[in-house]
Specification:
Blueprint lengths: L2 H11 L3 H8 L3 H8 L7 H15 L15 H27 L8 E3 L4 E4 L3 E7 L5 E8 L6 H22 L3 H5 L2
Helix pairs in contact: 1-4, 2-3, 4-5, 5-6
Length: about 180
């Protein structure tokens, strides 16, 4: 990622260089150096920035919206690292589903009841998060015993379908779902 790409991504994400540094767990001087002509953004930071941009395009939250009160600086940094890893994993999952041509079968997503159903055979449950995101919680098979390894591609399809439903519903979907 060169300087111009970095500036475009930061603008798209509405991130100041200082905010980007905090979310990437680097010194603000490092981001300033990347913004100079000729400085390249290293792989892990580029991967995180591109993943955040794709999640933003998908209408999914990718950054903490509130200040982490009551945490030491080290604990806050750890929480930011965990969020960054979660976002990268979610982005990778959505890209895998897209590379397969999308979900193999149509999932019916009910944002109000926090469920996604694959016909009469499988159901995935999720939590609505106050930032507009979601967190998968569990799944059940109605046609056979659950097998996490065998069912994983279907779980990914369900998560991608939930993400798409959230994107289509808009950023305040969770307020309607949590009334």
């Amino acid at each position: 990622m060169d300087r111009n790409e970095l500036l475009l991504v930061l603008r798209k994400l509405r991130l100041s260089p200082k905010e980007a540094a905090g979310l990437l767990s680097v010194d603000p001087k490092t981001v300033a150096r990347w913004m100079e002509r000729g400085a390249k953004v290293p792989g892990p930071a580029e991967q995180a920035l591109r993943a955040w941009a794709r999640l933003a395009d998908a209408g999914l939250p990718w950054r903490p919206r509130e200040c982490l009160i009551g945490l030491s600086e080290a604990d806050a940094a750890e929480q930011i690292r965990l969020l960054r890893e979660h976002n990268l994993a979610l982005d990778d999952m959505l890209r895998r589903v897209k590379a397969r041509g999308g979900p193999a079968a149509p999932w019916m997503v009910d944002l109000d009841n926090h469920t996604a159903e694959l016909g009469e055979s499988m159901r995935l449950y999720f939590y609505a998060l106050p930032d507009g995101g979601f967190s998968p919680s569990s799944y059940s098979r109605l046609d056979r015993d659950p097998n996490y390894e065998r069912d994983w591609p279907l779980i990914e399809d369900a998560i991608a379908s939930i993400a798409e439903a959230i994107r289509d519903a808009g950023p305040r979907w969770y307020k309607r779902a949590n009334v």
